[in-house]
Amino acid sequence: xxxVVEEKLQATGVQTQPLPSVDFAKVWRERLIAxxxxxxxDPEIDRRFWASIADxxxxxxxxxxxxxxxxxxxxxxxxxxxxxxxxxxxxxxxTLPLAAQVASxxxxxxxxxxxxxxxxKIEVRGVSNIQLLHGAMESIPLPEHDVVLAAWSLYRQLDxxxxxxxxxxxxxxxxxxxxxxPYTPPHRPLMEKIWNLPPKDAFPAYLYILGxxxxxxxxxxxxxxREMVCxxxxxxxxxxxxxxxxxxxxxxxxxxxxxxxxxxxxxGEDYACVQxxxxxxxxxxxxxxxxxxxx
Length: 295
Ligand SMILES: C[S@@+](CC[C@H](N)C(=O)[O-])C[C@H]1O[C@@H](n2cnc3c(N)ncnc32)[C@H](O)[C@@H]1O
Fold this sequence. Notes:
This protein is of the alpha/beta class. It has helices spanning 2-11, 24-34, 43-53, 57-64, 68-77, 95-99, 112-125, 160-170, 188-195, 205-215, 236-243, 250-260; strands spanning 83-87, 104-109, 130-134, 145-151, 171-181, 221-233, 265-267, 270-285. The longest helix is centred in the middle third of the chain and has 14 residues, at 112-125.
């Protein structure tokens, strides 16, 4: 069978080349160090950062995009009897909706302020199957759960191989990682022009995580969730204000609105801007896990 494939490839002139060996862990580490202008690789500084925005985090993430498709994909891999460890749970964007689909969730986070906001939401909603755990994923003993999830929380992990091994060891069945997949929305170049912003980050974090998983012998699969949010408003300036950086002046908003107008769609009486973002999902299944994983 293999020979037939090889002959067919040769007939089409396709050459098979040995794959270059890439040290994903090294590139990941170098990238984190290069991208650290605010010093958030230091846990203390990172905790201060989360303390400063914890109460506003939900509003900010809602404005920046959706995680609906990501949640749907994760939900399909879970079982009602599962226990879930949400690592870097933050204010519970994943913890709360997933708690409705599993037996119980442990929400681990290194920021007491993010956990405080999550605790308030748990109380208001009367959810009884979530417990909070304060600590850093790289040092706290990780309790075993059926599924371990780390969504948008590996950005401080300089020693990614060791952290991934720790997370995988805590997962009885599945380890799921959610991380960035680069995408540049059409209005971004306009913003870069007006506010002199650097070009949007094009680092496919989830692919490097996948690479590191393979480096440490953890077989994993990659998926991409396409998230869409439609911002609508009757007046273009209102949309421009929504998309603009917080510090934008009224004059800058007016300039942005003028450049944005030709790029918008009309939906009834509204102007609409469809904002797409992509999330990379990495799933590792324990080889000795019992039963079918993806039904
Ligand atoms: C971008 S937020 C993501 C929160 C949530 N998973 C979500 O998607 O909305 C990152 C969270 O990870 C937490 N975090 C970062 N490094 C951590 C670490 N080493 N151990 C535990 N939590 C960590 C931060 O405190 C923060 O709450």
